[in-house]
Amino acid sequence: MSPDGIKLLKTPVLDKSKWMQLPRDVIIGHDVLAQLPKVCEDLQVSGSALVFSGKGTMDVAGSQVLSLVREVMDAELFIVDTITPEIISEAEEAGSGVDVFIGVGGGKVIDTAKIVSYNCCRPFISIPTAASHDGIASSRASVPVKGGSVSLEANPPIALIADTGIIAAAPHRLLAAGCADVISNYTAILDWELSHRLRGEPVSEYAIALARMTAEIISKNADLIKPHSEESAWTVVKALLSSGVAMSIAGSSRPASGGEHKFSHALDQIAPGKGLHGEQCGIGSIITMYLHGGDWRGIRTSLKKIGAPTTPKEMGIDDYSAAQALVLAHTIRPERFTILDMGVTEEVARELIAMLYEE
């Protein structure tokens, strides 16, 4: 008996099923932390929680959040000073059996909470105290390891609560870095489309459209991004949220991470602790936009207006190290094809870095 006959009885169906996880409750505004108990009620989250925060962010928001959570459920505190595989394992042990994880702080805190959430199969709520990168609402997390950092799969938040008063009070450098991270979507998209044309990599038109629109919002409003302005914080947080949603739609970080991110990760190896992630991506985006033949001066102008660095020198990184990062970039996540994977010699890398200083 052959199975062919049976197969003939099957009706061909369109199989493009995809599982997307998106934040369900989003609250962005002034003094919104007090809404946390209502958010937990709306999400039907109860039982027990583990609240992640940093020593520096406890006074800013961590203590208030811990007090609010304890109004509706049992809650313990886990302080995150740094993010390492050992800290993640320790946090998973501390969170064993809890019903929800809540991250209150910057990138290290939020990334730790979302990784532990993913590994423990429990939801997590994101409460950023700064808007320095699009990880506040994405399903990816970065963990420093020996020789650089790795990007890990994680859970996106089921809720995002962003207090614009707290975020506006943070150093402007953090907000500017968040803007630069969003603007780098322009070149991440071009790299994705290039990979589609040359390697046949599938693309998501919806994710591309959303990521591009997010970058345009920040670029067009670059003149309005001012230090310690709540309206600026509101605009940037919305953009970071949209960028995170674009990644969830794509099912990967592709719409927000291309060659400029490889350049940033290479700098993390060569010149660790100098530039912020978003700052490095912004400069990388100027370079890769030039290689794509696009409006690289437009990106540079937007970054300058916002107050983000446009040269390695402004981040405290020497030009030689930046050129070496360009050459090294193709070794970062080699499975992700970008314009930097087409071959950048040391001589070309030096010329590209020199171009950043041209008027």
Key words describing this protein structure:
359 residues, alpha/beta, 8 strands, 15 helices, two-stranded antiparallel sheet, 6-stranded parallel sheet
* Tally of DSSP helical segments: 15
Helix vs. strand class = alpha/beta
- What is the chain-wise order of helices and strands? HEHEHEHEHEEEEHHHHHHHHHH
> Percent range for helical residues?
40-55%
| Whole-angstrom Rg | 21 Å
Summed over residues and divided by their number, the pLDDT gives a mean of: 92
Report the major sheet. Answer: 6 strands, parallel
Shape: globular
Unreliable spans: none
Pfam families: Fe-ADH_2
GO molecular function, one term: glycerol-1-phosphate dehydrogenase [NAD(P)+] activity
Protein name: Glycerol-1-phosphate dehydrogenase [NAD(P)+]
Cofactor: Zn(2+)
